[in-house]
Amino acid sequence: MTTTTPPASELTPGSTIEALVQAPAKARERLTSRWASLAAVFIAVLWTLPTFGLAVSSLRPELAIKTTGWWTFFSNPQVTLDNYRAVLGNGSGGLGGNFINSFVIVIPSVVIPISLAALAAYTFAWIEFRGRNLLFIVIFALQIVPIQVTLIPLLSLYVTAHLDGTFWPIWLSHSIFGLPLAIFLLHNFMREIPRELIEAARMDGAGHVQIFFRVLLPLLTPALAAIGIFQFLWVWNDLLVALTFAGQPTAPMTAALSALSGTRGTAWHLLSAGAFVAIIVPVAVFLSLQRYFVRGLLAGGLKG
Amino acid sequence: MASRPTKPLNLLALGSALGLTFTLAACGGGSSSAAGAGGASTSADCAAYSQYGNLKGKTVTVFTGIVTPEDTPYMDSYKPFEKCTGATVTYEGDKSFETQVLVRAKAGNPPDIAIVPQPGLLKQLVATGKAKEAPAAVAANVDTWWGADWKAYGTVDGKFYAAPSGASIKSLVWYSPKEFKDKGYTVPTTLDELKTLSDKIAATGKKPWCAGIASGEATGWPVTDWMEDMMLRLSGPTEYDKWVNHTIAFNSAGPTAALDMAGSFLKNDKYVNGGLGGVKSIATTTFQDGGLPILTGKCSLHRQASFYAANFPAGTKVAEDGDVFAFYLPGKDVTSKPLLGGGEFNLAFSDRPEVKAFQTYLSTDTWANNKVASSPNGGWISANKGLDVSKLNNPIDKLAAGLLQDKSAVFRFDGSDQMPAAIGSNAFWKQSTSWITGQSTKETVDKIEAAWPK
Prior knowledge:
The structure holds two protein chains of two kinds. Chain A is an all-alpha fold. Chain A has helices at 13-31, 34-58, 62-67, 82-88, 96-126, 132-141, 147-160, 168-192, 195-203, 208-237, 240-245, 253-259, 271-301. Chain A is flat and about 75 Å long. Chain B is 44% helix and 12% strand. In chain B, strands 1, 2, 3, 6, 10 and 11 form a six-stranded mixed sheet that branches. In chain B, strand 4 (155-156) and strand 5 (159-160) form a beta hairpin.
């Protein structure tokens, strides 16, 4: 929250203090409005309603889901955990194993690109070399390439390298697709760090490695967390990469979810429960780290 | 990842016990647990499999769009082969099979066997150059067990690639046997009789037909089936083939008359949409829900394939004397019996001995009967003449299999599945949907003709 800057003419010591004292109250007055709050609440309710409906639906029995809308739950409440049992169980269509696969996929797919991006961003931000700017622009421009056009060539490469059928194609693909944006955001964040800090460290005899680990990394935590969440959500929710590169033993949650309703969609009543199981993890991650998410994105994205 | 069951299994205790062994073997890639179990106990049953030799330690991968719950019977039906030969078959189902199999074939990562549900896709896969021609043993089996029409659908450019697998019958009309009995209606035997019956029901103030064509991005496909059925009935199989292969234009007289005929049912205010609304409600009702009003008595007739049986809620008796059943959508006259249907084909991308052996097994009557035996709830038939109809445990399967094996019936594969993708899975669906919501027949066929790839 910023304070309103008093006009230059009033800059006598007394009035400055007065202004500073009044500032929070004034700001609150200016920034709050009953109507704005009402609108915010309205939007929040509107946006949450489908998810709420999904939650209610997931607890209703099969016949009720298939014949009536979720709102009829309130006039005729029937609660069952059968859907969750079917979804989580090891029976036909269970998601248990895929749930674990999703973790096996998502952790390296977040760690690999962020580690590489942090190193690359440091290089682009603080090491002078010929063609640095051009190379940086080229890397950032890679974001323009739609991932769809890379799918078949990439898969051919993985097949040639005998990586198909393992988790490697998925890890590598997510890393490849995530790197340009991660490098860009981290680079912008690193540029924000005062040059004096780096120079002071250098005067004390620190090399690049020490500067990176001792000086920059602690300062980068919010940015790393933001990009981490970003990449996490992207990988967790990804279906296209999973369908193309994952086989049956390596298929994540999303791929299993798409098959959950059965060949001809006859088991669609399981989808609400399946969707809920799938969103629990991202919601937990997002809620616990959302402070970083907003702060880090603003730091990297807007000040560049 | 060897400890994770790859493919979910049936709830049956026995099934899951066996299945665990199977999936673990599948994950481990070359584990011999399946072979060890089989070799010891059932050597006598293995006589039919001796021709495939010892395939111990070999793995065959199957990729298909058939997922839960229909996947378990497939996996179960592979078990005798696995037991007796020692090979391991890994089954991988993916609902986006139709795009993924092309991606994998092009990228050089195809499965050993793909279960392809459309002749059109089969052609595309063969065009990638990765598919292998069927071995002689498979061709011989197909000559023995299937008709020439089926073999032709597995043939591309004169070379035979893929043996048929399952089949489904689309020329069926669902109805309530109880209602027919109470009201004294009889099952029609010609198209005219069907019309008369519809009028008779409509005269009582009830809308006789119900339909639903919404199906996500494939919305409109049930209309294409209607039109194909009418095309077969009004113009005959020869004209139908010409239409499908585009030797006659989509907007020529025959197809236009067929769509008009479909319209005389589907776009008739007096006939539709029983229990669901007006004509336009057809476009917004999902195909899964389209026939359900029969159960509540608000609709009498619903034209949909044999697989629709799975859409009725658990507890519905699907039988000639039950809550709901189907009759053959009659031909123009009593003697002509055109049959519209679909089916799958087993296409191989490898000619390793174990793949050839497995492919041969899938083309035998032994497999067809094993598949029936491992589908306790039914819902699966094949046009394989060696299929023992008496073993089918579900009346609708018996009806469909009986129709498939009827010598006077002329089978034709679903036309939209054979047309180029730009028509069969795009323009045809979209224009059919517009047609339901008010577009004229003429405009519809003209637009589809215009969209045909030059």
